[in-house]
Protein 1
Amino acid sequence: MKKTLLAMTLVLGSLGTVHWATADEGEREHGLLSLLGYGQDVDPVANATYKEECGSCHFAYQPGLLPERSWQGIMTGLKDHFGDNAELEQPVRDQISQYLVANAADHSATGRSPGIAKALTTEGAPLRITETAYFRRKHHEVPERMVKENPQVKSFSQCQTCHTKAESGSFDEHQVEIPGFGGRHH
Ligand code: HEC
Ligand code: HEC
């Protein structure tokens, strides 16, 4: 009973905001499932050191968003990390590397991770999530003016600015609210 009430409150609460997606019957059902926690796309970050060290400049990307070889490439190139120096002391770096590799897309059974790993088999070891074909396919309808030209977003790398549940590992399109835009505009 309590659970039902909570679900109702969540659904009613969500009606007040404009979401990216239009809510026809089928989609709303999917949205409800997500609100109830069935929409896990990737496992949430579960390592405090990683969150602290790799979440200070940007969103702490979940390891299940990239395959092992990508994380290894990122972790061995931290001195020149997209123009920044993100080098760490070796014990800390090793600890983070182990966490990322153990939970990488190709070692996770959660949500989208297996699909991401499969989609990237022909893409070498991309260092950016945002440059993979998988990511581009999901975002090709989102125009520049909502991203680069949007002072509240600036870059696709800032997942959490649009995906309101990004930190919990949910990237469902129904939980997208683009700052300054809100609903579907295209
Ligand atoms: C000193 C700041 C800083 C720290 C610390 C840092 N990064 Fe980054 N990272 C950046 C910048 C800058 C970018 C490029 C962002 C952009 O293009 O908007 C980036 C991008 C990334 C991307 C690619 C995002 C995309 O576009 O798909 C990944 C993955 C990443 N970082 C992982 C890590 C990991 C893992 C750590 C911890 C070992 C880390 N970062 C620590 C500054 C940092
Ligand atoms: C400018 C806002 C914005 C940013 C930043 C952004 N996304 Fe998205 N994302 C969207 C929108 C809008 C959709 C739905 C697109 C559609 O359905 O046409 C989406 C869809 C997705 C989907 C598919 C969801 C579904 O229900 O099919 C995934 C997965 C995803 N994004 C992951 C990410 C990740 C990971 C990042 C950061 C590296 C990110 N996104 C950054 C706006 C954004």
Protein 2
Amino acid sequence: MNRCGHVPVELDWQHGEFFDTSKLYLICATHGALYSPESGHCLGGRCNGKGLEPVSVIERNGAVYLTPTE
Ligand code: FES
């Protein structure tokens, strides 16, 4: 979910841009919290251990779709 663990805002620093300058980590544009792109775990900054909320998706024919949650 594109919602920071610190304050519930979107991470983008420009529309659809989430990665830091190293391109290794997701970064929150508001206060700079860092997240793992693979797991969404908080890696540092103001997220204080609170990671990104996972969502269930499937990839089909090059497109990614949300799947229903229970
Ligand atoms: S709102 Fe994301 S680090 Fe503060």
